[in-house]
Every structure is written in structure tokens, then in C-alpha cells.
Automatic annotation (TrEMBL):
Keyword set, alphabetical order: Membrane, Transmembrane, Transmembrane helix
One Pfam family from the record: DUF7996
Spans traversing the lipid bilayer: 27-48
InterPro entries: DUF7996 (IPR058309)
Top-rank lineage group of the source organism: Archaea
Source organism per UniProt: Halomarina oriensis
Entry keyword annotation includes Membrane: yes
Name of the protein in question: Uncharacterized protein
Amino acid sequence: MGLALAAFGVVVPGVLDFFLTRAGAPGLGVIVWTVGFGSAVVALWYVVLRPLDIGAETEG
């Protein structure tokens, strides 16, 4: 799931950025790419990294 989310978070904003830039709106393309990529990073953290119990003390 994490790999699909990462690919989706990079490919879709990148393609939208490309088409918006070609349509004459490069500033909007940069905004779309930044928000899309940033959202993918936050989603990856929430889905993959947050549930990991790294460095927690073990009982015993």
C-alpha cells in the first residue's frame, strides 16, 4: 500500500503539473505538484511510519 501511495503521490501531481504548464499556467502547476507531493508525504507518514513502534521500551 505504501508503494502505491508513493507512486500515486508522485505520478499524478507530476502529470497534472506537466499539463498545466503546457496549457500556460506554470505557477498553478507548481502549486498542484507541491500540494500533491506534500499530501503524499503526509499520507505515507500516517499510513506507514506512524504505526511503527520504533524505540519503544519492551516489557520483560
